[in-house]
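Sequence in, structure out.
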Amino acid sequence: MSEMVEGYVLEGEGLVKEFRGGDGGIIRVLDEVSISVRRGEMVAIVGESGAGKSTLLHVLGALERPSAGRIRLSGQAVEGLAEDMLDALRNRTVGFVFQFHHLLREFSALENVMMPLRIAGEPIPRARERAMALLERVGLAARVHHRPGALSGGEQQRTAVARALAAGPSVLLADEPSGNLDRYNAESLHDLFAELAHDQSLGLVVVTHNQSLAARADRALSLEGGRLVVSDVPGGA
């Protein structure tokens, strides 16, 4: 197997993911998938429902282990790590945004963004300062003390983005982030993702059915038959 290239924040090489079907047969969802993402780059992954896009994202983010293949997060190999070391690496290097925001409804936007920092042991003053700065960055400076129920769908998702950035990850993985938003809020979120990829020097991978979001990416790839191919999404490189 070839050496993985230095200078990428996310690398996957020869990734295979197999599941056992109800009839006992093996279903190969990912078939020798390779992908590398640089800092400051936004990559969109498109494809039909059920193609395995979310599975790929989970494997890339070390939420699931591949059946075969290699992954590096910020240059560190994932394979062979014990679960506690894998958890620590993932928490330090990867932020996740999902279709559903998964905010804690009993806490304010500020408290939700502070949560991963407090879990990581950050003192309250530093966690609060970091969370305030992130909420201001995503346009929610005036809404920091509102609970999720008092926020619009777009504001909830922006809060989720701020929370994903709290630990200062080098990689942001987003799974259908605008899937539950109306057109206006979706476009606003797409603008934010494009800005974050470049301004925050993140490697951003977004799984989406939204052609507008895919077109804003530096590259658009399509998952077809378990393999990644260059997509013909307009605007995607």
